[in-house]
Structure formats: structure tokens, C-alpha cells
Specification:
The chain is mainly α. The protein has helices spanning about 5-30, 60-65, 80-95, 100-125, 130-155, 155-185, 195-205, 210-230, 240-255. Helix 6 packs antiparallel against helix 7 (about 195-205). The longest helix is centred in the middle third of the chain and has 30 residues, at about 155-185. About 35% of the residues are buried.
């Protein structure tokens, strides 16, 4: 492997670890209506402000055997799992999109996507603020992709951007109508508004040609996650957001490797 590729991988791993640590703080603070922009991270048990050695992604948790360095309280697996998951998603984005501007916009979205997934599992909500950030990154992604395509395809970037924006509206409209029909038949709400908003975000990022693949992957991942959820919490409603996020990121990676959009193959 060329030396430049090793440098790229080191950069992606470093960025992935830092974003993993950021995602743990993001998922904790947003779920509790705390600012994720200001304020130092603190132990949830003793409230001690955490220093550098407490916050090294993955390594700190392993070094202190899953306990707070100050009060020795147990630190849950959620933290290393989130950090490892973000790192894996960042490496996958690099493998799919290369060392490109598009790849880093995908990577920038990862901590917000993972935080939304965790929050939805815990509180059954996809926060509007986080969805707005992912939407803004998606718009930047579409612009970057459009201007990159000009020398290759000669396509007008403005037309491409409008197509993606329209795809976002189409994604949301399709699922909103489907949700209303299912809700009417079942006599109860079948789909939350947060899920509809996420469909719009997925359409913006992916484009209209990926709607069938996104629907297929959403259904499959939703079925698998729903069955697992029923085994653990049979009396609770299943949050659909994690399945949507998984399906969206899968389609995004497939798009990066040049897969055909209809079935994502």
C-alpha cells in the first residue's frame, strides 16, 4: 500500500476516534436538553469534570476497566460501543468514498446520525436540531457532488441540487401518505413526524433513484430490529429511527462504491 494511503487511514482513524468521543457526549447531552457546544464533560455519578486522560476514545474505558478514574463508578458499555461504532462508520465512508470532500462530509454526519440512533432507542425521538445539522451537511454534500461531476458529465450543478431537494420532498411525501393509510387501517399512529423528516433528509442525500433501495433496506432492518426489540421489551413500542438510519447509511456507502440504485446492488 502506498505511504500516502497509510497517512489517509491514520487521519481517518484519528478523526473517527475524536468523533466517537463527541458522539457519546452528544447523545448524552441532547437527550437531557444540555448544551453540547459549551461546558466540560463530567462523570454522571460524581459530577467531576473529566480531563484528557478520562476522555481518550476507547483507551480510557479499557485502561480504567470501565470505571470512573475519580469515584470508581461503573461506566456503561454504551460509551465504547458508540465510539467503536462511529470509528467503523468513518472507516467505511473512507473505503466507499475515498479521501474526498464527499467522504469527509459523510464522516462529519456520522456522530449526529449515531447520536440520533442512540437517543431514539432510549427516548423514542429523533431530535430536530440533530436532523437539521444532518440536512445541512446533506445540502453541502449535494453541492460538492454536483460541482465534482461537472468535468465528467457536463451536468449543471443547479439542476442536480434541485433534483436532490425534490427527492427529499418526494421521500417524505411517500412515507407520510403511507403512514396515514396504515394509521387509518390500524386506528393508531403508525409513523412519527421525526421519521418523516428523516425520510426527507435521506432523499436529499441520496437522490430519487435510491428511494426503492432505501425502502427495501428500511423494511428489512426494521423487521430485524423490531424482532430483537420485542424479545427484550415486548410491551414497548419499537422506535423506527435506528432502522432508517442504518438503511440510509447503507445506501450512502453503496452509492459511494458505485452500486446500482434500484436494489442497491
Amino acid at each position: 500500500m502506498p505511504e500516502s494511503n497509510f497517512l489517509e487511514i491514520y487521519i481517518v482513524i484519528f478523526v473517527g476516534l475524536m468523533l466517537g468521543s463527541f458522539a457519546t457526549a452528544l447523545s448524552w447531552r441532547v437527550a437531557r436538553n444540555q448544551s453540547w457546544i459549551t461546558g466540560r464533560s463530567r462523570c454522571s455519578s460524581c459530577n467531576t469534570a473529566l480531563g484528557f486522560f478520562d476522555l481518550v476514545p476507547l483507551i480510557s474505558w479499557l485502561a480504567f476497566r470501565g470505571r470512573c478514574r475519580h469515584c470508581k463508578a461503573s461506566i456503561g458499555l454504551r460509551y465504547p460501543l458508540i465510539e467503536a461504532g462511529v470509528l467503523a462508520c468513518c472507516i467505511a465512508a473512507y473505503c466507499a468514498w475515498g479521501f474526498t470532500a464527499q467522504a469527509f462530509l459523510v464522516i462529519a454526519a456520522v456522530p449526529f446520525l449515531v447520536a440520533m440512533l442512540v437517543i431514539d432507542l432510549e427516548q423514542m425521538i429523533l431530535p430536530d436540531g440533530l436532523q437539521g445539522i444532518v440536512a445541512a451537511l446533506g445540502f453541502a454534500f449535494v453541492l460538492t457532488q454536483a460541482f465534482t461531476m461537472i468535468p465528467v458529465t457536463g451536468e449543471a450543478p443547479v439542476e442536480n441540487v434541485f433534483l436532490h431537494v425534490g427527492s427529499g420532498v418526494a421521500f417524505a411525501s411517500v412515507v407520510w401518505i403511507a403512514g396515514k393509510i396504515v394509521s387509518f387501517l390500524k386506528k393508531k399512529e403508525a409513523l412519527g413526524l421525526g421519521d418523516v423528516k428523516f425520510f426527507a433528509i435521506a432523499g436529499l442525500w441520496l437522490g430519487g433513484q435510491w428511494l426503492p433501495a432505501f425502502m427495501v433496506f428500511s423494511g428489512i432492518s426494521g423487521l430485524i430490529c423490531g424482532l430483537a426489540w420485542r424479545l427484550k421489551r415486548p410491551d414497548q413500542r419499537f422506535p423506527f429511527g435506528p432502522a432508517l438510519i442504518f438503511a440510509f447509511y447503507t445506501c450512502l456507502l453503496l452509492q459511494g462504491v458505485g452500486a446500482k440504485p434500484f436494489f442497491g446492488l
